[in-house]
Amino acid sequence: MITIKVTGIESLVKDYNAFIVDMSDMKEPMMETTEYYINEVEQNFKDEGQTFSQPWLPSPPATVRIKQALMKKGLAISTDTLVLSGKMREGFGAFVKSKYGQLFNSQAYARVHNEGGQGVVQTKKGTKTIQIPKRVLADVDETREKKVENIFETWLGTIIKRHSI
Fold it and tell me: SS3 of 27, please?
């Protein structure tokens, strides 16, 4: 008769359970991902769309003139494309949980600028509907996908190393 004795099973189960717990909280790579994206968006404002390989159309001359007049009154901070008050640029933030991350902009009009569409402006004669061109503020493209993939692979590698798997 052959007898086989298995030892260390309690330790194996404990290590496995600790590994599962570590894997269930992805807040660290989610935070790193959203920080990365916010930095990319900031760079995209600086280079007016080049970061996401979708250069912004310049503001029409009439818009630049309006911004110049507003700047003289202290009501605008720039004549740059998509910058009037700076609220949209500063409105990017992130919401992160253990298995969820979301990039957002607190300004409702950010979406219409990102996707293009219609907007309503106030004129001396009332309101006017205008076409707003698509100017990508943030995007998911191959470059960003690879970076996010790398962030998660690095995080996973750290957990594997920690548990000697």
Answer: helix
Give alpha helix (H) positions in the chain. Answer: 9-24, 27-46, 61-72, 87-90, 110-115, 142-162
According to DSSP, the β-strands at 117-123 and 100-105 are: unpaired
- Look at residue 102 and give its three-state secondary structure: strand
Give the whole-angstrom CA distance, residue 14 versus residue 10. 6
- At 55 the pLDDT is 96
User: 16-70, pLDDT tens digit by residue?
Assistant: 788 888 888 899 999 999 999 999 999 999 999 999 999 999 998 988 999 999 9
Reported pTM = 0.81
- Among 51, 29, 19, smallest CA distance to 149 is for 29
| Tens digits of residue pLDDT in 85-97 | 999 999 999 999 9
Q: How far is the C-alpha of 56 from the C-alpha of 68, rounded, in Å? A: 20
Q: Show me where the domains of the chain are located.
A: 9-53+93-162
- CB-count exposure of residue 12 (10 Å: 0-12, 13-18, 19+): exposed
Secondary structure of residue 70 in the 3-state scheme: helix
